[in-house]
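Thread: "does anyone have the structure for this chain?"

Original post by V.I.:
We have the sequence but no experimental structure in hand. Need at least a predicted one for the grant figures.
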Amino acid sequence: MRAFFSVEQLDHDPKQFMREGRICDPADVKERTQALLDALDAWGIPVVAPDDYGLGPVLDVHAAHYLDYLATAYQRWQTLSSPGIEVLPSHAPYLSGRVESLGRPPCPSTSPVAQAGYYLGDLSSPIGPHTYRSALRSAHCAVAAADEVVAGAAWAYALCRPSGHHVRYDRANGFCYINNAAVAVQRLRGRYERVAVMDVDVHHGDGTQQIFYRRADVMTVSMHADPVAYYPFYTGYANETGYGDGQGFNLNLPLPHGSGDPLFLETLDIGLDRICGYGANALVLSLGFDAHVRDPLGVLKVGTACFEQLGRRVAQCELPVVVVQEGGYAIDHIGPCLAAFLSGLPAR
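Reply from O.Q.:
Generated one for you, tokens below.
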């Protein structure tokens, strides 16, 4: 098993985000990445910088006008009379959210302020001078891991930071700018007829769901804290099952806040059983560690050892797996969580 990571991913350096009406210090700090790298090193897993794949694989799952915005947002923000330290939206345009449509037309305004409100879905995704390049290199890790599996590896790990599962076809959200899991899925579809996503981050994988919601060739499963009083609030409910050709190929498994290991693993088994029944040929695991009991943004009570069982049960599916790193903000615990997960996998 190999891992993929680029040092350029560390250049993304957010300064703030909004939480419950307060501007807070960032949670997606560089130290998260080092904790995961240390865990990989302890397990003897080689870490390789991905090739530069350009925009091609990202354009397969995101609108070109959205990526154009990401690439130029910070520089254009500096043309304002008194720009803040990062790009943050001050507007939230009304959009219908119609499930039959993959995306929206380009923003009708050329104003940097208007476009921030159009393309940034919340106050958790500030754009700094290096955000775009870091996010692109993060996505390249997902491409490299997918290619590793296509070439015959049973497992590959993409150490993606920034994370990606909240990014929709044309909108950033929740610390995320490019949907790394979706990029990996689409790359795998070049080889496999059916691909599944199992998202175990504490937050609903709303972006991944939205991108594949109308498709039958991708099964999306997300287990997460009940969104009725938790981010992302508006999606992640059990009645969201897909649309059109995708009807029946999206499964949400919301967990009561405070759930611990037994219910977490029971719910995981439900999701994996659905994936096996679907007949997936390959799996993308969106692996978050923010379900951990010590996570500062989490509301579940999952212990470190539970991630060993998670790895073991995913391995029992006997599918080629691309692991895409998502959240996890308890810096002292995410390394041990990754180590526990790796201990549950077959001999590498």
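V.I.: this helps a lot. The chain has ten helices and ten strands.
O.Q.: and The chain has a mean pLDDT of 96.
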